[in-house]
Design brief:
Blueprint: E1 12-15, E2 18-21, E3 26-29, E4 32-33, H1 38-48, H2 57-63, H3 75-88, E5 98-101, E6 105-108
Helix pairs in contact: 1-3
């Protein structure tokens, strides 16, 4: 028989002002859907699943870009973060949501 429908939000990540519906593959800020590319969505989803945890560019390359054992051009991470910030931050020049830890990497701040 048909499996019962999952309750709404059962596959949702909530991280401060960001929420991610992993079934619909849509991310929201303050309840408004964000217009993200696939890569930006994957990056935000990965960080939102582990709020407060710092990830190096290399770790993001492996986990989001799926370059295992081979680290591609880590500048691609910086570019994606910058583009993502333009969409999620109130002021991309003063990031409050996706924060840089100097010398360590990036994290999603609650």
């Amino acid at each position: 028989g048909n499996a019962p429908a999952a309750p709404v939000g059962s596959n949702r990540l909530e991280a401060g002002r960001i929420s991610v519906d992993q079934d619909l593959m849509v991310a929201y800020k303050d309840g408004k859907a964000l217009d993200l590319t696939q890569r930006e969505y994957e990056l935000l989803r990965f960080l939102a699943a582990r709020p407060g945890k710092v990830f190096s560019r290399e770790a993001l390359m492996e986990n989001v870009w799926n370059y295992e054992g081979y680290v591609g051009d880590v500048r691609a991470v910086d570019v994606a973060v910058r583009r993502l910030r333009e969409k999620v931050e109130d002021d991309p020049a003063q990031p409050q949501i996706i924060v840089t830890r100097r010398g360590q990497g990036y994290l999603l701040n609650l």
